[in-house]
Amino acid sequence: MSLSKPLYSTILHKLGYSLDQEGILNRFMREGDAWKSHLENTKQWIVDFSKDYQNSSIALFGTGWFLDIPIDYLLQQCKTVYAVDVVHPPQIVHKYKNHSNLVFVEADVTGGLIYTIYDLLYGSRKNEQVDFSTLSIPEFIFPYDVHAVVSCNILNQLNILLCDAITGSHMYKHTDCSHLQKNIQKKHLSFLQKYSYCLISDWVQTTYGDDTNDMTHKNLVVVEPPKHETHVEWSWKFDSCGSYEENKNVEFVVRAFSHS
Q1: Fewer CB within 10 A of the end CB, N or C, for the chain?
Q2: Measuring CA to CA, which residue among 118, 116, 183 is closest to residue 155?
Q3: Is 50 strand, coil or helix?
Q4: CATH, residue 127
């Protein structure tokens, strides 16, 4: 779905995408070295995957601030690098404006679901009662020919702001978004599997307070993982300030997969 730039910006702002992106950078600056190993592990996994695609075209989904993307390496190795996100930080676009083989692509990887949710909550369909467990998830089609794709730490995030907006509305505040979450994640995996791909995502969240024996665990990805021999896991401390879960520490278990 093609939307005018002002409407697209309005929708993203209303659903919290711009603030979320700023929040990621602020948290990164606050957490410091706690994120270092996770970011380096992510970059190295992408580097190892991309070695088979030198002088080729590659698409990176969820690029944001390039915190976990080995962008300089990829620009040297690849013919064309497509950086794909729902919105790109202006500072990043400006920084890399002179790199002719880097193409910034603004895209809704859910295939237009962002607009659908906006329309149901705030637009022409806002008085329409919808069962979100049966909501059709659009097919995402990438408009460029690429040899490989990388999904970088977004699989578990694709549904979060949409579900927050739904349950934050008066009409849908008691809605169970678990079916929507699962369907969004299944659709993204289905898209990736059309290509040679690399997938990295937070998979499990662990939350605990001062007493580390008092822990809770939550699955962030609710679909079956790809069945590949090439995969690894690591954990990282996401939040130690109690700002994500009140007065709690939050750690994530990451799973990374690659398939050529």
Answers
A1: N
A2: 183
A3: helix
A4: 3.40.50
Q: In this predicted model, what pLDDT tens digit does every residue of 187-209 receive, in sequence order?
A: 999 999 999 999 999 999 999 88
pLDDT of 245 > 80? The answer is no
Bridge partners of 59? 82, 149
d(CA 151, CA 73): 17
Residue 220 located in a structural domain: no
φ, ψ for residue 147 (rounded to 5)?
A: -90, -20
Domain interval for residue 78: 5-201
Kindly state whether residue 158 falls inside one of the protein's structural domains: yes
Task: For residue 237, tell me if it sits in a domain.
Answer: no
Q: Say how many residues make up the chain.
A: 260
Structure tokens at 4: 């005018």
CB under 8 Å, gap of 24 or more: what pairs does 181-186 form? 181/222, 182/222, 182/223, 183/135, 183/137, 184/110, 184/113, 184/137, 184/158, 184/159, 185/155, 185/156, 185/158, 185/159, 185/221, 185/222, 185/223, 186/137, 186/223
Query: How would DSSP label each residue in 90-130?
Result: HHHHHHTTT-TTEEEEE--TTSSHHHHHHHHHTSTTTT---
Residue 6 to residue 67: CA distance in whole angstroms: 27
User: What does residue 89 show for φ and ψ, rounded to 5 degrees?
Assistant: -60, 130
Give the pLDDT mean for 229-253. 84
H/E segment holding residue 17: helix 17-31
Which pair of structure tokens corresponds to residue 184?
Answer: 């969004």
Q: Is residue 33 domain-resident? A: yes
Instruction: Give this prediction's pTM.
Output: 0.92
pLDDT at 153: 95
CA distance 100 to 18: 26
